[in-house]
Specification:
The complex is a heterodimer.
Chain A: E1 2-4, E2 12-13
Chain B: E1 2-6, H1 9-20, E2 25-31, E3 34-40, E4 46-53, E5 59-62, E6 66-71, H2 72-80, E7 87-92, E8 98-104, E9 111-117, E10 126-127, E11 135-140, H3 141-152, E12 157-162, E13 166-172, E14 177-183, E15 191-194, E16 198-203, H4 204-210, E17 219-224, E18 230-236, E19 240-246, E20 249-251
Antiparallel strand pairs in B: 1-5, 1-7, 2-3, 2-6, 3-4, 4-19, 7-8, 8-9, 11-15, 11-17, 12-13, 12-16, 13-14, 17-18, 18-19
The chains are: A mainly beta, B alpha+beta.
Chain lengths: 14, 252
């Protein structure tokens, strides 16, 4: 089973 | 005041086609250096960035930075009213609530003007750090599209494994499995620069959506590194690019 990660967790908000 | 003219509406149609399956609405940020767009899809799994330098345009004027919130479905409808070889001029006044699109036929005997209402969209910008990818692959964009399409039949997930000698795309599902390997070719249609082998798993549905950009570019660049999003980049001639970032799937 694999889980989809969120793209937002890899980049920081500006 | 913002004004940008392209000699061919076809390129604009291709750009919007590359965005509209992933985004419903988005904001174009226009400055004197060019046009940028950055947005996540609704599920926050992928991020798309568009960059078009001002010299991509036949004419480009942007006296003050403007953000144009667009509904991409509506923009597509307006673009359908134009022929591919029409020239297109996009205009917006400062603090405008609409943009104007003017199409001029190749022989200049027909002009058509359309206004499109702008949207006030909440904008969230993400800082994308410069990433040193362990694997950088260049391949024909049509080949990448074919692989993504073929693998989608087998499974929701696509495993991309890149090593010094080859890049392997795999899908494994109830029906069976598929493995497609590409090696570097002598004609340099496929090139692999690999510092460290990487294997990552991704949602095939998103990969397929990215391939909507195939008509924009002969080549696609893929960047991979452990534990970072996949980069899929389509250059737009020498004047810009569309980059898609896709978050990897991880073992539960």
């Amino acid at each position: 089973q694999s889980k989809q990660t969120s793209i937002a967790s890899f980049f920081t908000k500006v | 005041m913002f004004e940008a003219r392209l000699s061919s509406t076809l390129t604009l149609k291709k750009i919007v086609d590359a965005l509209r399956d992933i985004l419903n609405q988005s904001t174009l940020d226009c400055s004197d250096t060019g046009i940028q767009l950055q947005a996540m899809d609704n599920s926050h799994v992928s991020l798309v960035c568009l960059c078009l330098r001002s010299d991509y345009f036949e004419k480009y004027k942007c006296s003050r930075n403007v953000s144009l919130g667009l509904d991409l479905k509506s923009l597509t409808k307006v673009l359908k009213c134009a022929n591919g070889d029409d020239a297109v001029t996009i205009k917006a006044a400062d603090k405008a609530d609409k943009i104007e699109l003017s199409f001029e036929s190749a022989g200049k005997e027909r002009t058509a003007d359309y206004e499109l209402r702008l949207l006030n969209l909440d904008q969230e910008h993400l800082a994308i750090p410069e990433t040193e990818y362990s694997c950088v692959i260049h391949m024909p964009a049509s080949e990448f599209a074919r692989i993504c399409r073929d693998l989608a039949v087998f499974s929701e997930s696509v495993v991309i494994a890149c090593s010094k000698n080859c890049i392997k795309f795999s899908a494994n599902g109830e029906m069976g499995s598929a493995n497609i390997k590409l090696s570097q070719t002598s004609k340099a249609e496929v090139t692999l620069q690999v510092d460290e082998p990487v294997t990552l798993s991704f949602a095939g549905r998103y990969l397929n959506t990215f391939t909507r950009a195939t008509p924009l570019s002969e080549k696609v660049k893929i960047g991979m590194a452990a534990d970072v999003p996949l980069l899929v980049e389509y250059p737009i001639e020498d004047y810009g690019y569309i980059r898609y970032y896709l978050a990897p799937k991880v073992d539960d």
